[in-house]
Amino acid sequence: MPLEFELCPGRMIGGNHPCFIIAEIGQNHQGDIEIAKKMIKMAKDCGSDCAKFQKSELDHKFNKKALERPYNSVHSWGKTYGDHKRHLEFSHEQYKELQKYADEVDIFFTASGMDEMAVEFLHELNVPFFKVASADNSNFPYLKKTAKKGRPMIVSSGMQNMETMRQVYKTVKEHNPNFTILQCTSAYPLEAEDVNLRVLTEYQKEFPDIPIGYSGHESGIVISVAAVAMGAKVVERHVTLDKTWKGNDHEASLVPSELAELVRSIRLVERALGNGVKQMLPCEKPCHDKLGKSLVAKVKIPKGTVLTQDMLAVKVAEPMGIDAEDIFKMVGKKVKKDVEEDESILPEVVEGYCKKRKC
Ligand SMILES: CC(=O)N[C@H](C=O)[C@@H](O)[C@H](O)[C@H](O)COP(=O)(O)O
Ligand SMILES: C=C(OP(=O)(O)O)C(=O)O
């Protein structure tokens, strides 16, 4: 059984606990705190477990030239990348306001700390867990510092290979047992061919003592639901109020109806996954009673006859006879009374046969 741990107060993940569903608001709030609040409420109303943002301390995340570079994209909120990012960045006070709002709405609230200073701030803010965005999975000083803070962690693995992810696992594990790694491909929107869900299976083999999960940037919900069927214990998806809004992430995000459907589908698949024990279930009894096959006399079998296989047929019979699967065990046994042709062979008629029905 993969490790399970408490990701948020009172909320375990891993093992048989329900998949933890993160609504990644990210920067889809357009820099508007009222939209951000609407999105938190929407995340809650759609049944997700957590509303997540991205917190950067821009002078720590970027160097000067990166902030000064022109950003001419249709998704740009400013002439330079710095202006664009400043427009989208909420202040510490705004974060406190959003956290308070999430608390009122009763949904877990956190953010990816996009640099070490942002992690410091989130630590002070007392977020339940740290999300490490893909861009920081090769940032080993950051990983070490973040892991040492002792909060649970979710580490995403976009833009990375297995060798480095092994290093990530080792680095975090050394300081913090409570973390999960998410399969992720950092393309927006992500094509199905590039999702590589089988990495989930590989991660579970490589890292058998941590839960694994999936952070998706594809369109629609099907692939994320499939990730849960493959063992993802955390699913993160970008959410939006309108896919046509300006911003890099809206197109690959889920609108409220999709998020609600994702949550419903994940919960349905979880119910369907079961415990893996193959057995006839009580719900199958009506079908078995009506159509289950059992042993019938192919010919008249007089009392005292020693049974051979050619005396026996397998049919849907009334009343139900001995289980069809026991046909070979009947050979060599004696019948205690006459059985007419086409009559069911009942357990009490065969000497030395005792077997309980399956249901
Ligand atoms: C890799 C990474 O951090 N990706 C994030 C999470 O998925 C994204 O939300 C980016 O912040 C976003 O796509 C950036 O868009 P722009 O460059 O237009 O601000
Ligand atoms: C970029 C992020 O996530 P991911 O790498 O999982 O897409 C994030 O959490 O901000």
Automatic annotation (TrEMBL):
<dbReference type="Pfam" id="PF03102">
    <property type="entry name" value="NeuB"/>
</dbReference>
<dbReference type="GO" id="GO:0016051">
    <property type="term" value="P:carbohydrate biosynthetic process"/>
</dbReference>
<dbReference type="GO" id="GO:0005576">
    <property type="term" value="C:extracellular region"/>
</dbReference>
<dbReference type="InterPro" id="IPR051690">
    <property type="entry name" value="PseI-like"/>
</dbReference>
<dbReference type="InterPro" id="IPR006190">
    <property type="entry name" value="SAF_AFP_Neu5Ac"/>
</dbReference>
<protein>
    <recommendedName>
        <fullName>N-acetylneuraminate-9-phosphate synthase</fullName>
        <ecNumber>2.5.1.57</ecNumber>
    </recommendedName>
</protein>
<dbReference type="GO" id="GO:0047444">
    <property type="term" value="F:N-acylneuraminate-9-phosphate synthase activity"/>
</dbReference>
<dbReference type="InterPro" id="IPR013785">
    <property type="entry name" value="Aldolase_TIM"/>
</dbReference>
<dbReference type="GO" id="GO:0006054">
    <property type="term" value="P:N-acetylneuraminate metabolic process"/>
</dbReference>
<dbReference type="InterPro" id="IPR006013">
    <property type="entry name" value="Antifreeze_III"/>
</dbReference>
<dbReference type="Pfam" id="PF08666">
    <property type="entry name" value="SAF"/>
</dbReference>
<comment type="function">
    <text>Contributes to protect fish blood from freezing at subzero sea water temperatures. Lowers the blood freezing point. Binds to nascent ice crystals and prevents further growth.</text>
</comment>
<dbReference type="InterPro" id="IPR013974">
    <property type="entry name" value="SAF"/>
</dbReference>
<dbReference type="InterPro" id="IPR036732">
    <property type="entry name" value="AFP_Neu5c_C_sf"/>
</dbReference>
<dbReference type="GO" id="GO:1901137">
    <property type="term" value="P:carbohydrate derivative biosynthetic process"/>
</dbReference>
<comment type="similarity">
    <text>Belongs to the type-III AFP family.</text>
</comment>
<keyword id="KW-0964">Secreted</keyword>
<feature type="domain" description="AFP-like">
    <location>
        <begin position="294"/>
        <end position="353"/>
    </location>
</feature>
<dbReference type="InterPro" id="IPR013132">
    <property type="entry name" value="PseI/NeuA/B-like_N"/>
</dbReference>
<keyword id="KW-0047">Antifreeze protein</keyword>
<keyword id="KW-0808">Transferase</keyword>
<dbReference type="InterPro" id="IPR057736">
    <property type="entry name" value="SAF_PseI/NeuA/NeuB"/>
</dbReference>
